[in-house]
Structure formats: C-alpha cells, structure tokens
Amino acid sequence: MKYLYLALAIVLEVLGSSFMKASDGFSKLLPTTITIIAYIACFFFFSQALKSIPLGIAYAIWGGLGIVLTALISVIIFKQSLDLPAIIGIILIVAGVFVMNFFSKSSTH
C-alpha cells in the first residue's frame, strides 16, 4: 500500500500542477478548485506513504517522477518545448532517484 499511496500522491501533484497552469494565475474557478483539491489529496496520500517510506527516499521519488510527468504534460498538453539542457537535467534527476532506490542503504523496501 505504501507505494500505491506514493503513486497517488505523484499523480495528484502532477494533476494539481497542470490545473494550476490552466487556472491562469488562479483567475479561473474550475481549474483553481481542481488545483486546491488535488494538492490537498496529494499531501494526504504523501503523508500516508511517509508512515513506512523514509522521507528522503519518498521525496526523491515524488519529486523526480513529478518533474518528469509534469515536463511531459507541459510538452504534450501545453505545447511547451524542452531544450537539451532541460532534458539532460531531467535525465540526471531520474538517474538520482534510480541510484537512491537501488543502491542506497537508506531505503527500507
């Protein structure tokens, strides 16, 4: 269940960020409402995941996957572009999450 909670937190964070962009500075009611609800639910599920996943590991996964998924949404939905340094940076973040999860003794899974 701990990784299901973490996955839900990640999806909801990406949803909240995407609708924050769509809210146009919180000037549109529906996207603003979805943003707020998504972030509240995101933090609830993240707090549940933290009951059994170390904070550093959980945050690395949450942040890393959130960055990748949000970047993909920005390209696919919002038609924004990523230059080579941005892509390299995202790859390095993913590599860091991978190293932490598979090689760190801090992880308890």
Which key features would you list for this structure?
single chain, 109 residues, mainly alpha, flat, cell membrane, transmembrane helix
Distance between the termini: 12 Å
Mean pLDDT across the residues is 93
Taken as a percent bin, the fraction of beta residues is under 5%
Strand segment tally: 0
What general form does the structure show? flat
Low-confidence stretches: none
Membrane topology: Multi-pass membrane protein
Keywords: Cell membrane, Membrane, Transmembrane, Transmembrane helix, Transport
Family: Belongs to the drug/metabolite transporter (DMT) superfamily. Small multidrug resistance (SMR) (TC 2.A.7.1) family.
GO molecular function: amino-acid betaine transmembrane transporter activity; antiporter activity; choline transmembrane transporter activity
Describe this structure in words.
Helices cover 77% and strands 0% of the residues. With 109 residues, the chain is an all-alpha fold. It has one domain (1-103). Helix 1 (2-22) runs antiparallel to helix 2 and helix 3 (55-76) runs antiparallel to helix 4. The mean pLDDT is 93.
